[in-house]
Design a protein that fits this description.
- This protein is α/β, with parallel strands linked by helices.
- Helix content is 35%, strand content 25%.
- An 8-stranded mixed beta sheet has the order 1-2-4-3-5-6-7-8, with helices on both faces.
- The radius of gyration is 16 Å and the shape is globular.
């Protein structure tokens, strides 16, 4: 179903919502790739709902191109829209979605975030600028440009990176690891042989083995940190 969420600066944006069978669960805000709230992103929400989470995916393009739903086969329009989107405002919108979900009758009050590609970076940015209960980023693009904020990490953080990712290569992963040092709240996994967007089912670079492993680790992390609160 589609819901409406008030922004922090007086606007309003839409979000896809998936509910668990029992009608209430811990929350997860799923943050889109550059392609928008696509069937893949909605499918992530549906899967999390099947695992008893209440999941929402906010439209982070609402300020310039509301409802944009693009395709990886022609990435240029998506890149153009993403270039017009302010990362801090997108993170603020993710935080507004967290606040909305915490107060929703279908949520227990605890909420994590999970993001993919650009959304992986926004998930990180939300974890260092706001206060989700946990954050997961899949192959986040551009995290290394905001590592000055790593010291502000507010919650447990799980990051997945691909060995052959041209947008977040091994040297970037090394920078991220160095920035977090010995912070025990942070876990970083690397996937040998995998490329960017390895978890996008049906995508050109889908790697089922890496995707399954990353998804299992993410689910375990969310159960422990969001449900368990540890």
């Amino acid at each position: 179903m589609t819901i409406r969420i008030p922004s922090q600066d007086g606007g309003e944006f839409s979000a896809y919502m998936a509910l668990p069978k029992k009608g209430k669960g811990p929350g997860v805000v799923v943050i889109q790739e550059i392609f928008g709230v696509t069937p893949f992103i909605r499918g992530i929400c549906d899967h999390l709902a099947s695992r008893q989470f209440t999941a929402i995916a906010p439209d982070l393009y609402w300020r310039t191109n509301p409802g944009a739903e693009l395709n990886e086969s022609n990435p240029e329009p998506a890149r153009a829209i993403r270039a017009k989107t302010d990362d801090n405002k997108a993170s603020d919108d993710a935080a507004a979605a967290i606040d909305f979900l915490r107060k929703h009758e279908a949520c227990t009050g605890r909420v994590g975030v999970v993001g993919f590609c650009w959304g992986g970076m926004i998930a990180y940015l939300t974890a260092v600028r706001h206060k989700p209960d946990a954050a997961v980023g899949y192959y986040g693009v551009g995290i290394e440009k905001r590592l000055d904020l790593a010291k502000n990490l507010s919650c447990p953080l799980l990051l997945h990176f691909a060995e052959k990712d041209q947008f977040a290569p091994p040297e970037v992963v090394a920078q991220v690891k160095d920035a977090f040092g010995k912070d025990k709240r942070t876990t970083i996994w690397e996937y040998a042989g995998a490329g960017h967007a390895f978890a996008r089912s049906g995508g050109a670079h889908f790697d089922p083995k890496a995707a399954d492993l990353a998804d299992m680790r993410s689910l375990s992390f969310l159960v422990e940190k969001v449900i368990g609160g540890r």
